[in-house]
Every structure is written in C-alpha cells, then in structure tokens.
C-alpha cells in the first residue's frame, strides 16, 4: 500500500529530556523537512539514505530555532517503508512543539496514535503480531516481559503461524489436485501423511494455547491478592513492597473498603498487587461490598498472600480463610513477628499445607524469603522463559483457538472416514483463523482499533 499523504509527530516522551525526536514519514517527507532545515552547502534531497546531517531548524523568516541532527532514511529501507526523516533536537516540550508546528505548516499532517507502525504493517514490513509486540515492548515492566515482546517483534509468533499455515495450505492443495485429477494423483497414499500433518498442527496450536497463561503472567504480571481479616497488616505490606505510603494505615478496623491495585517488581518479575478489604462479619453495607470483592479477587488471583496476625490469638475468621486457600496458589505470611508471638507456624500447619513464612511488615523480616519463594514458584517451577512461543493477548488466543477447533473437526472427519471435501472445508477455516493472528485476514475496523491503543509518535 502507498500513502500519498505525509505525516509527522513527536516520537519521544512528553517529559523533558536532553534530546527529543520528531519523525516525518511519507512521499514528501524530505520535501517538508527541507523547508525548515538549513545545512551548510548541501540540500537534504541530495543526501544519501541512512546518513546523519548537522544543521539548524529555521522559521519562515530564516531565524534559527534550534541546532539539530537530521537522520535520513529512504524508502523502502525505513521503519514505515516510506521516506523517513527524523529530526533530533534539544529536549523540551516547547521546542518540540515549535518544530512540529513548522513541519505541519509545510503540508504534512499530524500522525494519529500508532500511525507509523500501522504504515509499517500495511506496507508489509511487519505482520500484525509484530505490530502488537511493538506496543508490548514499549509497555514492558519486567525483563521477562521485555524479552517476550522482543521475541514476538523478531517474528517468533509469525514464523510459527506461517509454518502451520504452509502445512495446511499445501495439504489442501494436494487434496484439491487429487480430486480434480484422480487418474494421475492417488490420494489414498496421502492419508497417512495428512493424518500426521494434522496431528502435528493440532499439537503446535495446543502448546501455544497452553502457553497463553504464561504469556499473560509475563506481560501483565502475577496477579497477587493480599488477603486477611482486618488489621493484620495488609495495607502495610502493600506500602512496604511499594516503598511508599500508597494505602492508608490505621488501627481502625475496616479502613480499607475497596481494592487498591499497584505493580511491584521483584527482580525480573512483575507482581500486580491487589490490596483488599479485611474479611470479617459486618453489617456495614459498604464494607460488605468491599469484602465480597476481596473474596472474588482471592478466587481469581494467580497468587494469594494470606496474612495472619501472629501477635494475637488465632480466630475463627483466620481458620476459615486458611481453609478457603486450600485450592489456591497461596503463601501464608505469619505477620508481626517483631511483637510477642501468640501463633506459631506449627499451629497453622493443622489447617493448611501452604508455605508459611514468618514475617514483619514493620521491620521487613521475611521479605527476602517471600521474594525468593515467589520467583521459585513462577519462574523456576511453573514458568521458565525459553524459546517457546508465548502468545500474550486475547485476540491472538481466540484466533488460535478457532483454528485448533477446526483442525479437531478435520481429525474427527478422518476418523469417521468422511470424504476429502469435508477435510478441506475445515482446513481452510483453520488457515483463515491463523491469518487473523498475523493480519492476513482482518478487517479495517479491527486494524484501526488495534493501532488506536498505541502512543502518539509510534
């Protein structure tokens, strides 16, 4: 696809920094840039691609606005596969806006959010899974998330999907050819190969679906709920993990009435922490809503941190909560070990088989043990980042699931010894579903929706 309009936007953060970048892309990118640039004894249009030039941005009266470096990238060897000019100016919101306004006055249009990456996709430089990985890479909050996004950007999903689609389309082509020319192509000898190919594709798709949960944890973080009865130290734990006073802490039961959510990084992993209301019997209608949300979050969490106040006697509410986490991935924190201990780990072991850690939100005792245990659980036990293909968004998962179901129908048809035309219908359905992952069979509305989520300038 070729775009006749030229677009421009600030490609760096709006926060002031030492250097900012304004990006121009399109048919007249060089022409627009030349109208605001002043070089010594040369013109940008005469320069070679992938070269850097020193000069000045000037206004319409010829006054110098800023001292800049200009990077020229000619089509098709650029991010968008169009002519691209990037102006590196001094950082600062005002100077960036002034230069951008000068560029727009030359005839360029303001780029929409994600438009540069959208052009890269529509011009065939990247597929849709790689385009989505660009945004994931920008938003990554841990090393594992960054590695996963970069793997997708390099085509880990694309190549696997293309491999499966090639297998499917080659088999469909053979079947169609055999049906059209049965005298010269014998389909009977192909049955064993077809069965092997279908089974292989099914296994690959199932592995990708199974890895979705790992991909979600890598991208979004481990959904971690802090639970317990009132005044056991839940909000204090959140504040301690954040290193700031995010939650209000008082001695009054029921201070936290709604959930508080924050991201906390433990080394290379990300925890999405949810502080909940204290779970107990109450007649307060507002507290009841918060407690119900707390119970729901406990059931939906990847990890539950159940706090027990070790400085007071074990209560019936504590015992009920210990029973409720029996089917969950949970850790019991025996909190307030800096005070006189009235509850021991041995007592708690009567009610739970979960890991019990002696802890103090006040002194930080047990913090390192908690971090190491979480890492061990999620990145040495359940998840190990390797060369497997991780899908990280629901759109990709649904498309792969649809393809998987279609291939299961093919397998079922083969077992029932139905006609080959039954196979090809479901195989083509699987082929088209996989096309949605890499963007070969998606409508314009979906493409627009995906790129609207991007930041400006990317």
Describe the fold and architecture:
With 458 residues, the protein is an alpha/beta fold. The chain is built from 16 helices and 13 strands. It is flat. The model is unreliable at 247-257 and 381-386 (pLDDT under 50).
How would you summarize what this structure contains?
With 458 residues, this protein is an alpha/beta fold. It is built from 16 helices and 13 strands.
What structural category do the secondary elements indicate? alpha/beta
Rg, Å, rounded: 29 Å
Order of neighbouring strands in the sheet with most strands: 3-4-5-6-2-1-7
Largest sheet geometry: 7 strands, mixed
Spell the H/E element sequence.
EEHEEEEHEHHHHHHEHEEHEHEHEHHHH
Give the proportion of residues in helices: 40-55%
Strand content: 15-25%
- Terminal-residue CA separation: 19 Å
- The tally of helices reads 16
Shape: flat
Helix-strand layout with pairing:
Elements: E1 7-10, E2 19-25, H1 29-34, E3 37-38, E4 51-58, E5 64-73, E6 84-90, H2 93-104, E7 109-110, H3 115-122, H4 128-139, H5 143-153, H6 156-180, H7 191-210, H8 212-220, E8 222-227, H9 234-242, E9 260-266, E10 269-275, H10 285-300, E11 303-309, H11 316-324, E12 330-335, H12 345-348, E13 355-358, H13 367-381, H14 394-415, H15 420-438, H16 444-452
Parallel strand pairs: 1-7, 8-10, 8-11, 11-12, 12-13
Antiparallel strand pairs: 1-2, 2-6, 3-4, 4-5, 5-6, 9-10
Helix pairs in contact: 4-5, 5-8, 6-7, 6-15, 7-14, 14-15
Comma- or semicolon-separated keywords:
single chain, 458 residues, alpha/beta, seven-stranded mixed beta sheet, 13 strands, flat
């Amino acid at each position: 696809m070729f775009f006749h309009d030229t677009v421009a936007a600030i490609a760096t953060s709006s926060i002031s920094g030492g250097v900012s970048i304004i990006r121009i892309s399109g048919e007249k990118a060089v022409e627009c840039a030349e109208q605001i640039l002043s070089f010594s004894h040369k013109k940008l249009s005469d320069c070679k691609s992938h070269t850097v030039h020193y000069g000045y941005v000037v206004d319409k009266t010829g006054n110098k606005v800023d001292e800049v470096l200009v990077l020229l990238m000619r089509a098709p060897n650029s991010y968008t596969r169009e002519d691209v000019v990037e102006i590196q100016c001094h950082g600062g919101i005002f100077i960036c806006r002034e230069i951008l306004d000068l560029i727009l006055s030359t005839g360029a249009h303001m780029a929409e959010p994600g438009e540069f990456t959208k052009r890269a996709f529509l011009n065939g430089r990247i597929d849709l899974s790689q385009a989505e990985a660009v945004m994931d890479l920008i938003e990554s909050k841990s090393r594992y998330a960054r590695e996963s996004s970069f793997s997708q950007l390099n085509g880990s999903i694309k190549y696997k999907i293309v491999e499966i689609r090639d297998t499917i389309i080659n088999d469909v082509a053979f079947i169609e050819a055999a049906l059209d020319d049965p005298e010269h192509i014998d389909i009977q000898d192909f049955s064993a190969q077809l069965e092997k190919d279908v089974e292989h594709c099914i296994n690959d798709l199932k592995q990708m679906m199974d890895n979705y949960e790992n991909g979600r944890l890598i991208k979004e973080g481990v959904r971690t709920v802090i639970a317990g009865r009132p005044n056991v130290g839940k909000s204090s734990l959140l504040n301690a993990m954040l290193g700031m006073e995010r939650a209000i802490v008082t001695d009054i039961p029921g201070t936290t009435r709604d959930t508080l959510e924050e991201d906390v990084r433990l080394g290379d992993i990300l925890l999405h922490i949810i502080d909940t209301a204290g779970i107990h019997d109450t007649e307060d209608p507002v507290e009841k809503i918060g407690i119900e949300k707390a119970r729901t979050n406990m059931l939906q969490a990847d990890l539950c941190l159940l706090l027990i106040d070790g400085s007071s006697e074990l209560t019936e509410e504590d015992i009920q909560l210990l029973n409720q986490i029996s089917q969950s991935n949970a850790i019991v924190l025996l909190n307030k070990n800096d005070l006189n201990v009235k509850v021991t780990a041995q007592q708690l072991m009567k009610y739970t088989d979960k890991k019990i850690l002696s802890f103090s939100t006040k002194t930080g005792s047990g913090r390192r043990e908690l971090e190491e245990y979480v890492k061990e659980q999620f990145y040495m036990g359940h998840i190990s980042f390797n060369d497997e293909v991780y899908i990280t968004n629901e759109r990709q998962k649904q498309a792969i699931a649809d393809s998987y179901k279609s291939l299961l129908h093919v397998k079922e048809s083969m077992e029932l010894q139905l006609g080959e035309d039954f196979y090809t219908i479901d195989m083509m359905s699987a082929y088209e579903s996989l096309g949605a992952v890499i963007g070969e069979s998606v409508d314009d509305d979906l493409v627009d929706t995906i790129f609207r989520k991007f930041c400006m300038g990317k």
